[in-house]
Design brief:
This protein is of the alpha/beta class and 182 residues long. 35% of the residues lie in helices and 25% in strands. The chain has five helices and six strands, in the order E-H-E-H-E-H-H-E-E-E-H. The protein has helices spanning 10-18, 40-55, 79-85, 87-95, 159-180, and strands at 2-6, 24-28, 59-67, 99-109, 115-126, 145-147. It has a six-stranded mixed sheet with strand order 2-1-3-4-5-6, with helices on both faces. Helix 3 crosses helix 4. The longest helix has 22 residues, at 159-180. The chain is globular.
Length: 182
């Protein structure tokens, strides 16, 4: 089976490919329309449908966001837009220290075009100050999201702690994807 990972973000493609051992992976940097929707789940579904129409075979896409309850769930599916407009500092100014949840929705379009979406989350909080950059970061969220049990944003974690956070997410995604692609 060949599965296409559709994303313009090479680091995200690398993480998703690591979730599919034994599967032949093809990465395609498709620029997909990101619809306005009520959740990252709905965005991922719409992007998987678009990608399937363009690729014509099994495809995996991912959409993620930061959900802050004290902001009514904002920015949620608008995280990319919020980071592009008010930036990481703006998010910290709005809700620094507030509990938050990093949500990831992975959508798989099967060979028949049917789409299944799995939601995966990491609880935590927003930092009280924007952290610096780090190797492998594919989003400014890494500079403002503090995973539960940690005291600093992902970008400021030690390389080992950061790898542990990514491994936990990768393992959850791998188990889910294995069940969906059977």
């Amino acid at each position: 089976m060949v599965v296409t990972i559709a994303t313009t973000n090479r680091d995200k493609a690398t993480l998703l490919a690591a979730c599919l051992p034994g599967v032949e992976i093809r990465h395609v940097a498709l620029a997909l329309v990101e619809p306005q929707a009520e959740s990252v789940h709905a965005v991922a579904r719409a992007k998987a449908e678009q990608a399937f129409a363009r690729v014509g075979g099994p495809v995996v896409v991912e959409d993620s966001g930061l959900v802050v309850a004290s902001l009514g769930g904002f920015p949620g599916p608008y995280t990319k837009y919020a980071l592009a407009t008010i930036g990481a500092a703006g998010l910290v100014a709005l809700a620094g220290g507030a509990p938050g949840r990093y949500t990831s929705a992975v959508a798989v379009a099967r060979a028949d075009g049917s789409v299944e979406v799995g939601d995966h989350a990491i609880d935590g909080s927003l930092a009280t100050a924007v952290g610096g950059d780090c190797d492998g970061s594919w989003s400014d969220l890494w500079r403002v999201f503090v995973p539960a049990g940690e005291r600093v944003p992902v970008s400021q974690l030690t390389a080992a702690a950061r790898a542990g956070q990514l491994a936990a997410l990768r393992d959850r995604l791998a188990r889910w994807l294995a069940g969906v692609l059977r």
